[in-house]
Design goal:
The chain is mainly alpha-helical. The protein folds into two domains: 326 residues, Rhodopsin 7-helix transmembrane proteins (Rhopdopsin 7-helix transmembrane proteins, Up-down Bundle), CATH 1.20.1070.10; 64 residues. The chain is built from 14 helices and two strands, in the order αααααααββααααααα. A two-stranded antiparallel ribbon has the order 1-2. It is globular, with a radius of gyration of 39 Å.
Length: 425
Amino acid sequence: MSNWSTVEDDYTSFPAYKAAAIIWKVVSPILIIFGTVGNSLCIYVLTRRSIRSSTTALYLTALAFSDLAVLYSGLLRQWLVYLFDVDVRQLNEVGCKLNIWLVYCSLDFSAWILLVVTLERVISAWLPHNYRSVCTKKSALSLILAIGVFMLALNSHLLYGMVFKDITDEFGNFVSEAKCVEINASYYSFFNKSWPWVDLCVFCVIPFTVIVIGNSLILLKVVKSHKKANSAIVPNVKVNSKPRSHSSGHGKHSSMTTMLFTLNIVFLLCTSPVSIYNIGYSYWVTNASPEKVATLDLWWAIVNMLQYTNNSINFLLYCLSGSKFRNEVINLFCRKLKARNASSVARDSKYTRSRCDSESNRVRSRSNSASHHTVSSVQTPVQPLHTATDNDKNKHTYASTLHPDSALHLGDSTHSEATTVVSCV
């Protein structure tokens, strides 16, 4: 341990360490922002009514929550360390134990969710008649809960082994202030030499094996189904509804398979380097020179960026490889755009209607006046002929304009229509 403290005082001056610090400071916030937005959109889209009935959507929703936990418990901590020199593990006992426990649990949980999704697609491909009865939402929730409890229990030794205490040498002399370290030498040996192999199996080897075998079985079934579909369709000259429905179902299955292949390949490429690094680190750092330690720090930054990239880009992978997910995202944004346009059109049309109604009311009142005037003018010659006196001239003039009852009735209707227009405005 004293050798390590001497190395720690010197290796920060090398270019490799400075390059590692730049990676942590610059790349980390980009992945955090992109991962937060992407995983939040994944949760929103996967929980919509049109897609949430699928058990695969339930697993991928759990994966999105797990990826967010990885980003905020692991990557955010490293960014704060290199940018502000603040480490949540070095603040108190709770931060020391809880942070490292959550990092390991969330990383393992994400890996095993992909494992379960692969097994579900294998059942869907090879046992389609039993798929509905085996892969239900109840069984999916039970599996997610079981995986979560298993990962919490598997990594629970960290709650015991990591402590927040003062650093002392082998003789008990004070070396530095309290830090988050292993509880004793035996746990230090277990955590740095034995545990990385267990973590490699849980985090990488077992998921890798299941994913590779499962994808091979799915690919084999897809090829067989494709050959069978071609042999059944080629002899037929007419295209009927059955081949179309089969082609549609085959397309949906192929889309899901393509998305699963993409997720698994990216997972394996991004997580394998950090697992290998954890195994070799305890051997590489022993009696290492300050320059070699700085180089190891640079590689640590690189393999971590690869690992956290896997937790940040799932939304992009879904959109690129999954046609159903991509169509759902497109429909979501199109509906919002249409709703916005419809609301603006409704406001404009309401204003236009009120103006048109007022204009029509004016035209209607004018036409009513003209019609009454025409009727009065037509009816006047029917009256019997007699000598026109001054009194008769006055009567004839009044009768040829408008009857008092008609004027009162028109005034009421005009008033009511005007009131209606005002209320509409």
